[in-house]
Amino acid sequence: MAPSNKFNVGIIGYGLSAKVFQIPFVALTDSLVLHSIVQRSPSPGNSAPEDHPSVKHFTSIEPMLADPDVHVIIISTPPNTHFETARDALRHGKHVLVEKPFVPTSAQAEELAALAAEKKRVLCVYQNRRWDSDFLTVQKLLREGTLGRIVEFETHFDRFRLEKPTTWKGQLSMDQAGGVLYDLGAHLLDQVYVLFGMPSSVSAKFLDQREGRIVTGGSDESQQPDSIAAVLTYADTGLLVHVRISVVSVETKQPRFRIRGTKGSYQKAFLDPQEDQLRGGMTATDAQFGKEDESRYGRLCYVTEDGKIEEKVYPTVEPETYAKIFEGFAKALETGNEDDIPVPASQAAKVLRIIEALRESAKMGRDVAP
After folding, report:
1. How far apart, in Å, are the Cα atoms of 306 and each of 9, 147, 302?
2. Fewer Cβ atoms within 10 Å of its own Cβ: the N or the C terminal residue of the chain?
3. DSSP 8-state assignment for residue 367
4. Is the peptide bond before 101 cis (omega within 30 degrees of 0)?
5. What are the start-end ranges of the E strands in 159-215?
6. How do residues 208-235 score in pLDDT, each as one tens digit?
C-alpha cells in the first residue's frame, strides 16, 4: 500500500495518449503522483526528460517495474505490447491502467483479470469515451425513459480520411489489436455494452472503402478493413444496434447517434469536443473544457399527450469529463474494491468477445453469438 494514500505513477510510453490523455489528468487527481516515465528514445522536441525534468526517467520497462517506489503503471504503448506488459506489471505487484484497445483477445483479457484478482491489484482499461457528454446524454434519455422502449440504436464514428494512418492504427493487423475495429470500434462497442449488455448475436461486413472492396478481415494485409458495418441483435427485446465506422463520409455534420423508441427518437451529430480541445492545448481545468456549443445539440422528437409528434432541441448534459475515469481509478486504488473500478478488465473481455464475434461473422458471412 502506498504511504499516506498517495500512489506513485509510472507511465510506459510517451506518445499522444501519455502526453494529452494521461499525464495532465494524473496531475489533476489528488492521490496520484507522476513518479516516472519510460521513453525508449527521447529526441529534441519529443523528450520526456525535457518536458518533465522533476520526475524519474527510464529507457526500458524492466527498471521501472523493479522500482518499489512505483505503485501504479499506466501502459500507453501500441496494443500488441499490452498483454505482456500488463502481465509483467501485475506480477511485480503493480496496479495497472491500460490504454485501449486493451489486448488482442478476450482470452488474454480474462487471464489478466484473473491475475489481478490473484495479486489483489487494480486493473482498469482506459475507455475514456464512457465520459463523452453525448454518451452521458444518451444514458440520461434511456435512464429516464424519455424515448420509451428502444427498438433501434445507431452509433457512428464516421470521418473523411482517404489516407491510411501511418501509426500502429494503420500498420498493425487485427490479430495484433490494430485497425479500425479495435481502435474506434472498441469505443462504440464498449458504449453499447454499457447501455444494453451482451447481444444474442452479431453480424458484420468489413470494408476497404479507400479501395472500394469488401474484405474478410483475414491475416493478409489486403483483407484488413478501414470501415465497418455491423448489427448487434438483442433477441429478448427485439432491439437492433447498428455500429457504423466509415472513412469515406463527406459530411459537414458527421452523424453520431440515432435512436428510435416507442415514445420518441433522438438524433445527434458531431463527436464529443474533449479530444479536439486537449489536442488544441486546452487544459482540463478550463471552464469551457468538455462543453459543447448549442449549435451542436441533438434533436428530440417525442409524442405529446394528445398524440402529436413534436421536435425540440435537446441540450447535451454538463460534462463530467475524462477526469472521472482517473477519479474512479484512484478510488479503486484506495478501497481495493472491484466495484469501484471504472472499467474492469472483465467488462473489457466481454467487449472483446463481441469484437471476436464480429470478425467471425465477417469471415464466415453469417450471424455469430458472442
Report:
1. 58, 16, 11
2. N
3. -
4. yes
5. 201-208, 213-215
6. 999 999 999 998 889 999 999 999 999 9
